[in-house]
Amino acid sequence: MQGNIIVTGASGNLGKDVVQKLSDLGYHLHVTTGSHGIDAFDDLSLVNSQAVDLTDVNAASTFVFDTIAKAGQIQAGIFLVGAYAPGNLEETTDADIEKMMQLNFFTAFHLVKPLMTQFKEQGGGQFIFIGAKPALIAKQGAGNFAYALSKSMLFKMAEMINAEGESENITATMIVPSTIDTLTNREAMPEANFTKWIPTADITESIAFVLSETGKKMRQTVIKLYNQA
Q1: What does DSSP assign to residue 144?
Q2: What does each C-alpha distance from 193 to 46, 179, 181, 190, 207 come to in angstroms?
Q3: What dihedral angle (degrees, nearest 10) is formed by the CA atoms of 10, 57, 133, 97?
Q4: Which single residue of 55, 112, 123, 134 has CA 20 to 30 Å from 146?
Q5: How far apart are CA 27 and CA 41, in angstroms?
Q6: pLDDT value of position 36
Q7: Collapsing DSSP states into helix, strand and coil, what is residue 204?
């Protein structure tokens, strides 16, 4: 059997594909879901799922500590929780920024802190984050200011993790899709050319590669899955 991995946002469109793929590869997965998705993986024997409010630092920390107690070591944390909101700078309120920061940054940060300590103690580990193209390209981010700003924080956190973890075999990888081909996005943009978007299966394959023996050797990695979008 492969190593133990924490996956957040497992009941989302991307999360379900990631969990299925990694379970098929033999990883033992400890996943968080929304309260509506707690039973989604009952048929997968290598998956332990739990509904956790990751915006609550205490709930997030408890989940990590309990998982470590059960698993002993954790190979990686994969952070898929996120949300989108439109709006340019002039339309954006403090509340908009706070909401996007809670959902896109703090849901990862609250787990990264205890996992960083664990990775140092065990001699290494991997963090995998899902970025966003608007966080890298200002012209695209201008129309979704709070969202792009919150996602940009993940890139900076990954840079700092890589700097601090360089000598301890701790790495952070950013996977950056353009528009993800999901039913939700298709319904929101029915006139778009879906062939230019990124299927969730492509993101899933990229995550599996990062976790592979070859992928573990990569450093300061930013994988841009833009296709033609």
Answers
A1: B
A2: 37, 11, 10, 8, 25
A3: 130
A4: 112
A5: 14
A6: 79
A7: helix
Residue 97's contacts (CB-CB under 8 Å, 6 or more residues apart) are 146, 149, 150
CA–CA separation, 159 and 108 (whole Å): 14
Contact 8, 32 (CB under 8 A): yes
CB 176 within 8 A of CB 132: yes
- Alpha-carbon gap, residue 84 to 86, rounded angstroms: 7
Give the chain's residues under pLDDT 70. Answer: 1
Helix boundaries (H) for 101-211: 107-122, 133-136, 138-141, 145-165, 183-188, 200-211
Question: Which residue in the block uniquely carries the two structure tokens 């896109």?
Answer: 104
- Identify the residue whose tokens are 């908009």: 96
pTM over 0.90: yes
Cα–Cα distance measured from residue 8 to residue 3, given in angstroms and rounded to the nearest whole number: 16
Question: What pLDDT is stored for residue 1 in this prediction?
Answer: 56
Tokens 């023996």 sit at which residue? Answer: 213
Written as six digits, the tokens of 177 are 């899709």
Distance CA 140, CA 45 (A): 41
**Fold designation for 4-82+107-133+148-225:** Rossmann fold (3.40.50)
Residue labelled with tokens 């929101």: 188
